[in-house]
Amino acid sequence: MKANELREMNLTDLNNALVNSKKELFNLRFQLATGQLENQVKIRSVRRDIARINTIITEKQALS
């Protein structure tokens, strides 16, 4: 997800995206532990998406 796309979202949408990303990260870690995950780079990209979402949430809360 790009930062510009995230900045256009409101706080409720950002929180929903954060929950979905955390669920996806959990599932990826579970797949990694069971040996089913083929592309391990996906974990890093989801972690960075979570960091981006948290950063934008913090920015929006500071502006409010």
From TrEMBL:
Gene3D superfamilies xref list: 1.10.287.310
Protein's GO biological process: translation
Gene Ontology MF term list: structural constituent of ribosome
KW Kinase (keyword) present: no
GO cellular component: cytosolic large ribosomal subunit
NCBIfam families on file: L29
Protein name: Large ribosomal subunit protein uL29
Lineage of the species this protein comes from: Bacteria, Bacillati, Bacillota, Clostridia, Peptostreptococcales
